[in-house]
Amino acid sequence: MAQTAFKLYDDTMPPSEFEKMLAGELYSAADPEIQACAAAAFAWMARYNASLGLSEAARGDLLRQRLGKVGAGTVVRPPFHCDYGFNIRLGAGVFLNFNCVILDVVEVRIGDGTQIGPGVQILTADHPRDPDERRGGLEFGRKVTIGRNAWIGAGAIILPGVTIGDDALIGAGAVVTKDIPAGAKAVGNPARVRD
């Protein structure tokens, strides 16, 4: 089960499924409030993914309508896919190439100057290991953090709970299952730090 460092809700009342999701606790994605958030994100993605012919400034305005933070000079090339958008925080000068996917049931933080290749998947959504909990439709999230000036190669997959340090390089097609230290180069499946 997911561990949380803090609670986002008032302890005097039971938390909503949405509050449990944001806190990284087990929650039901079938909850109407969560479904409404997903529907709003889908409507936004339809607009954003049709914006390829617009200027970078116009696409930046669209990004700021949905994402939690968009730093100056950040570029996200459509198509782009996410669960909700509001849990994504992009620093200044971040670049996401075509067809990136961010499953942001909890926070995804990407530092200044980081470059992300096409087809990269950043996943915070996780599922219980217990089959009865999975049958019940429960899931949870684990935060992903990518530091400043990192480079994530095309088609890499960043799994839930991973932290990638500043200046790290992740090779194309790597599957990152564990934290990668600052300045390290990691390649393969599962990704391993190399010289």
TrEMBL record:
Belongs to the transferase hexapeptide repeat family. CDD domains: LbH_MAT_GAT (cd03357). GO terms for molecular function: acetyltransferase activity; O-acyltransferase activity. InterPro entries: Hexapep (IPR001451), Hexapep_transf_CS (IPR018357), Hexapeptide_acetyltransf (IPR051159), Mac_dom (IPR024688), Trimer_LpxA-like_sf (IPR011004). The gene is nodL. It comes from the Bacteria. The keyword Oxidoreductase does not apply. Residues 18-72 form the Maltose/galactoside acetyltransferase domain. Keywords: Acyltransferase, Nodulation, Repeat, Transferase. One of its GO terms (cellular component) is cytosol. This is Nodulation protein L. Pfam families: Hexapep, Mac. Acetyltransferase implicated in the O-acetylation of Nod factors. The keyword Aminoacyl-tRNA synthetase does not apply.
